[in-house]
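Checked the freezer inventory, then went back to the computational side. Two predictions to log before the end of the day. The first one is the construct we discussed on Monday; recording sequence and tokens without edits.
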Amino acid sequence: MDEQWVRGGGPPWWRRGPVVPTRWPWRSTLLVTVFVLGGSTFASHSQPDRVHLDFYARVLLVVGSVLLLWRHRYPVWVAFGTVFVTVVYFGAGYPYGPVFLPVAIGCFSAVVAGRRRVAWSALGVLWVAHLLIAHWLYRWLPPQHDHGMPWGRELAVAAWVVAVAAVSELARTRREQWARERAERAQAARRRADEERLRMARELHDVLAHSISVINVQAGVGLALLDSDPEQARTALTTIKAASKEALGEVRQVLDSLRTPGDAPRAPAPGLDRLPELVQQAASAGLTVAVDGTPPRLSPGTDLAAFRIVQEALTNVVRHSGSRHARVHLDHDPRELRLRIDDDGPATGADAGGSGNGLAGMRERAAALGGTIEAGPRPDGGFRVLAVLPLKVTPKEDDR
């Protein structure tokens, strides 16, 4: 290759903006030079009416080809330089041949570098100059006793000019399309990274908030009963140990998925089948939870979201409600699952209205599945969280 290719596909001249290659395109230039010299020598044998291919003709052929070494750095100068050399070559009466090849490559490089008008202007200058030489100026230019070029052959030259311009425009269009696709892939990758970051933040918040709430309550119980009821304090410490162990295990699972994103999780994600365990943990924090209804068969993403919503709602009851009783009601139809978590209040903190990260995380989980969350005080007192999750996976659901 003449230049280094960019990781992700496509040569450097397909990218937008000016590109300074790391290497000179000397291999392709040498190949073009040899081809132009050899082809022109071979073509001169069948054109005895033209000027013999002498030393000066070969110098022009070499100069026109060697200019291609600068086609990526100075596409404008190379496009007009190759056209100038070609016009001088034909004006001197030398035979036709592959002399147009350097012009085609130079103008092609100018188009893909974003200099379309320059390339079209250079090709227009070449065609007009050839038209003048072949049909008017030939009377005063070598070879002697030359005749004007037939118009049919002139149409072939015009068709060649149009073909070079068309191929160059096609390459430019493909380059722009490739650049758009590359930008879209980069944007999609950034969006996936942001979504994964938010998902990890929700997971860590839900795991830590619930477990630390239980630990906080039990630590208070243990401190209060340490002298008067050591056995009850021991029970509180046991609960703290179990809650912290579970929290560490879930946090480790989340972090493992960050370290090895291509591997499957070592443990299944929690779902509503762990609802009895969640009720037991709430009971250890002094909260009595009554569960009504049974969940349907859920997809892994919906099952995890439903579990986290119930977990966060119960955590909020422990932290912000004066009630020690909560009710979890599950209902479903063929289209959606409805979760309702109620407590009798009253609120013990200023943030009981649901402006914290917990309710924001629940809303994000529901929205990712195409569902909704409604949370707020009940008319008869207390607080209610109502979640509606579709049973059919929508395109917004995280892939798991």
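The second is the one RB wanted added to the comparison set:
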Amino acid sequence: MQEHFQILIVGGGNAGLSVTSQLLRKKSNLKTGIIEPSEKHYYQPAWTLVGAGIYDINKTRRKEKDYIPKNSTWIIDSVTEFVPAENKVICKSGKEISYQYLVVSPGIQLDWDKIKGLEETLGKNNVSSNYSFEFAPKTWEFIENFKGGTAVFTNPSTPIKCGGAPHKIMYLACDYWRKKGILDKCDVHYISGGSGIFGVPEYAETLKEVLKKYKIQTHFGANVTAIDGPTKTIEYETKDTDETIKQSLSTIDASCYAIVSTDDKAETKTVSMQFDLCHVVPPQSAPDFIKKSPLADPNSPLGFVEVDKFTLQHSRFPNVFALGDCINAPASKTGAAIRKQAPVVVTNLLSVMDGKAPVEKYDGYSACPIPTEYGKLMLAEFDYDNKPKMTFPFDQAKPRWTMWILKTKILPWLYWNKILKGTA
């Protein structure tokens, strides 16, 4: 017999659990099911702190079963196919589950394989990534034991979860090396697919000063394509002209660079750089089972779920809502965004269930807590228009000790005790 739920939630991470908890707090008799294959739940925002040596990785992992809301059914399985025309999903086990309403929130996919050689060298050759439970502790090991040389931190050209994470660890590493007295021996590079250090001018100005303070050299519009651990070489593509690259090389130790190839027509250069330490952030996209589904935005090459960016209702299937890192809305993919999206989804879903139109609107709010050194943090809050939306009665573009406490102490407690339970 086919299982059926009034509301089926795909994904038991922050978004899925928050929405389910809030729904059941409003209507405890709803028949809800959560499809989530992992028996462990992770608080990933702390992995930057793990990589900086000030947080225990084991404190970021708990049992999923302890956070499944009461009165909800946990289906330990994974979705392989969406059939929205028939209001059902097909699972890896072969089980078909039908629904009246669907909430899609399985998160984002880490495409490690999109960088040639990355999977083979992760955790070795001084190459690590805080985007992995396994390798975040290695980041700290490599930073702590670094004696100087070329340190490279990367950021892909795709949207990623926690867009600030690629440079958060860079600032903390530089501060650690400064305190250790070796920063002047470190040649630090930030290779980013973005066009600048941050999209909100008010916060970007602060970060530009941080870059100057640590003498970090930036390479924007650059997409990492390959890494060779044994030879400690990283390659990236850039649209820079020959003259721009020459000017860039004239300000640094050009001996660690080589232009490998040139595509004159597209003016794309492949640049090779030697490194002694490298923190890599993988390209990211919608999970494959979403990419190939009718729910995917046909205009999104990365396959994100197509939603109205304000109501978070699917553009073509009115009984489907989505939130979190899997959606095509042009908002930063953060836990803070989910915290604002969840009540919008809950209110609008219940409204649709009552035969009414969605009424709540999500304004694109997101927040990015960016540590600029040990003990100081800038809390960047903003909306769809990249306008600051500051919560506190002071200038949040200035790094503060109080915001460091918020990040390291208060937010982890709120996550496990309030947010997942639908009370914050």
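For RB: The longest strand covers residues 96-104. The chain is about 25% helix and 25% strand. Let me know if you want it refolded.
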